[in-house]
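Teaching assistant here, posting this on the class forum so everyone can see the example we discussed in section. The complex has three components, and the goal was to see what a joint structure prediction looks like when all of them are supplied at once.
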Amino acid sequence: MSFGAPPPPAAVFSSIFDMMPPSDDDIIDGYNNKPNTCFAFMDLLDNYTPSFFDWLPSTTLNHPIPSPASSNVPESSEEKEKPEKKKQKKERVARFAFMTKSEVDHLDDGYRWRKYGQKAVKNSPYPRSYYRCTTAGCGVKKRVERSSEDPSIVVTTYEGQHTHPSPNLQEASGGAAALNLLYTSGSGSGSILPCSSTSISYETSSLKRLVEEQNGGGALTSSSCTTSSRSSAQELLRDNGLLQDIILPTHINNNT
DNA sequence: CGTTTTTGACCGGCGC
DNA sequence: GCGCCGGTCAAAAACG
């Protein structure tokens, strides 16, 4: 709350639609210096299906975002869980996080969110905000917090998958929303592109190398994507020319 | 007046 | 068992 309303600069970055992937030169040890760029995301899920998030540039952090979910990725060979006792009332849901260099905390992503909580987090002077998708029947949540190490970095964690297209599609035929529809309609229901960490107009060359090095075996589903599926997704997007059509939703404003 | 945000309380998981 | 911590609830306030 203390940093709730800094005077927004002229080119405030308030929407992920504005995000541009960094060039390789911008990447230093897995991070980038260019402001207002989405430079990393990782997923922590086992049944992730693509959504509009996929067009976000796909690089991976040097270190994972601290999260309980990051430790339960393997689980295949080990079943230390009690048979029924710990049946994991927390059923695992698709979840991934990405980091942006942005001055605003809550980036507009085309969906409508209602804030339902805010908590101070340990080892960080910045609070964490909890949002829920306002669409009835859609239980997607997201957490937004500012990095304690670099206050200019916002970490956004999505949990779950939207069961509906972006509401902004009706209002402004938003590009990212169109992407979501493209994916959704392309496969009927379910996963369209089995592994679609789509990066737009942006070769992942060195970044991809970075990802592979860090994962060692490719534990993360997003980073273990095959190049073929990635490129096919890219072509799909380019052929439809959706990226050029991206327009910002009309309701975007700078007050949080 | 309906919707969203704020914020303290509450709850459950986990480590000690 | 207890305390810490992350996540959620819900009433009140704020907002448009």
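For the discussion questions: Residues 68, 116-117, 119, 121-122, 128, 130, 141, 143 of chain A lie near DNA strand C (CB under 10 Å from a C1'). The two ends of chain A are 11 Å apart (CA to CA). Think about how each of these relates to the inputs above.
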